[in-house]
Design a protein that fits this description.
With 383 residues, the protein is an all-alpha fold. The protein contains 22 helices and no strands. The protein has three domains: 98 residues; 82 residues; 150 residues, no CATH class. α9 runs parallel beside α11, α18 packs across α21 and α19 runs antiparallel to α20. InterPro entries: DUF2336 (IPR019285).
Length: 383
């Protein structure tokens, strides 16, 4: 069994935290040379450990930054490195000194890892996220505090399975959902609301899941509170808006088309600008279904706005999507798009009218057509 040499950090390293004067190493590179000799052997007897510990406690603070970083990279993975020296390196204010110990040392205390995961920065959180083994408490702390680059590391690891609590934490962090919606969806870490809210950023396969979630939400909502018949004036306003959208599409006036769409759906104008682009044509089909456009009106809009960029097959897929998705599901999706950009909204806002002018928010993402994989098999069923 390995006999590790432990020593009191404050007592045996009295100069911890003090920097050497001048730009060169006050120890003349002695500690680096000793470290290279120390790590050259995998095992050491007690006397050798004591000698190295004594040398480290006397010279570590006098070592130059460059040498100290090299020492940290050599000692972090070494099995015989004194534990307290590892703790000191991991706590060091120089991130390039702390990184190797946080990344490779298996003997750091959970308290130290927890504190670093909480306080950051993300450079050091990345080191922790890449450790060979991660306690659940550390993963939770990273989910609560880390940025997108760190969360992506966790999502990419096959050995890290997020708990329901951790998934809930991530879903409540809108900036993480916006940046990593596709990765989270692939790991089944997005809840239905977040999945629907990030529809415009998802690949085709996941957009189909979002539509399925919207259909289920619509059915549940109708079962709990059957939809009331629309006011005649509301229907007239809706018809006028659809006609106006078609007219703007015919003239290819995209800014005015986006403005009308924003007024009709309560979506941010930036999002509606994005919906007029060819890579968001499926989102446009959903949005127009929520407004109650007919299939022929949608065909006119698609041909005039996207006819040059979209193939005939793509337009047929979009018409099929418009025909397949229910009005209730399309309204649920649009409501979630509004909510995803407006964190101050409450859940009651999901059922707000779709005819209020939207606020200015960031535009959303891009990608694919839902149902594209299985649509070719359904060609014979007609449009």
């Amino acid at each position: 069994m390995r006999q590790s040499q432990r020593f009191n950090q404050t007592k045996q390293f009295p100069s911890f935290g003090r920097k050497p004067s001048g730009g060169s190493a006050a120890d003349g590179g002695v500690l680096l040379a000793a470290t290279e000799l120390f790590v050259a052997r995998s095992r050491h007897d007690i006397e050798e450990q004591e000698i190295f510990s004594e040398l480290a406690r006397n010279l570590i603070s006098a070592t130059s930054t460059e040498d100290r970083r090299r020492i940290a990279s050599l000692l972090a993975p070494h099995a015989e490195t004194p534990d307290d020296l590892l703790q000191h390196l991991a706590r060091h204010s120089d991130h390039l000194t702390a990184y190797p110990a946080l990344r490779y040392s298996a003997r750091l205390s959970v308290d130290l890892l927890q504190k670093t995961a909480f306080s950051g920065p993300d450079t050091l959180r990345q080191a922790i996220a890449n450790r060979a083994s991660l306690p659940e408490s550390i993963v939770t702390s990273l989910c609560e505090n880390a940025g997108s680059s760190v969360i992506r590391i966790l999502l990419d690891r096959n050995d890290v399975l997020l708990t329901q609590r951790q998934k809930s934490v991530l879903n409540n962090r809108r900036e993480i959902v916006a940046d990593l919606s596709a990765e989270m969806a692939h790991q089944d870490a997005l809840n239905p609301e977040a999945l629907m809210g990030q529809f415009l950023q998802l690949p085709a396969k996941l957009k189909s899941k979002a539509i399925a979630a919207a259909e289920m939400t619509s059915l549940v909502s109708q079962a709990q509170a059957p939809r009331k018949s629309r006011d005649t004036r509301t229907d007239a306003a809706r018809l006028q808006l659809c006609d106006a959208l078609v007219q703007e599409a015919l003239t290819q006036n995209r800014p005015r088309f986006a403005d009308l769409l924003s007024q009709g759906l309560g979506l941010p104008l930036a999002t509606c600008d994005q919906l007029t682009q060819a890579d968001q044509a499926d989102g446009l089909a959903v949005a127009l279904k929520a407004l109650g456009t007919s299939k022929s009106q949608l065909a006119t809009v698609l041909i005039r706005l996207h006819g040059e960029a979209a193939s005939l097959e793509t337009i047929r897929l979009l018409l099929r999507l418009h025909q397949t998705i229910s009005s209730g599901a399309s309204e649920v999706l649009v409501s979630q798009w509004v909510l995803s950009d407006q964190p101050e909204f409450t859940s009651a806002a999901r059922h707000a009218p779709l005819y209020e002018a939207g606020k200015k928010h960031q535009s959303v993402g891009e990608k694919g057509l839902p149902f594209q994989e299985n649509s070719l098999e359904q060609k014979s069923s007609g449009n």
